[in-house]
Write the structure tokens for this entry.
Amino acid sequence: MPKSEIISHKIIEIRGHKVLLDFDLAALYETDTRVLKQAVRRNSNRFPEDFMFELTEEEWKSLRSQIVTLKTGRGQHSKYLPFAFTEQGVAMLSSVLNNERAIEINIAIMRSFVSLRKFALTYEDLTKRMTEIEQHFPDIYKALNHLMDFKQTHQLQQERKKIGYTKQ
């Protein structure tokens, strides 16, 4: 899987912001989470609330319940709540973690955020246009829906397993 696709899967939405969590960033930077958090704490003035915030206990529990592949055992999970970094916070990390790997990963992360934003705008524009078609041309909208349903039904019929005798 390409690096940008891996990063895009790790971007989640919390408190209305698209964010990356500290442990995901640490894995991408190939460093320990505690090292990343330590660097952030030493430079806390560079990370205002709109760049980085710490999850609440409730947010963390909710998020953990969604993560199916939790490891078991002593020392597998941090006793501290994770940090969530917005796009600006990730950009600021490159100045705090000043090494080649951090710069390379930050470029890939910025590209992932941009592609997600482009996708959201394209989807929003498409939804808006479909709504306009539905309002102004209801007959055309019904015909398009019928054609899409017919095509999907026809495809399902072609893919289904045939029953009965077969010629040999």
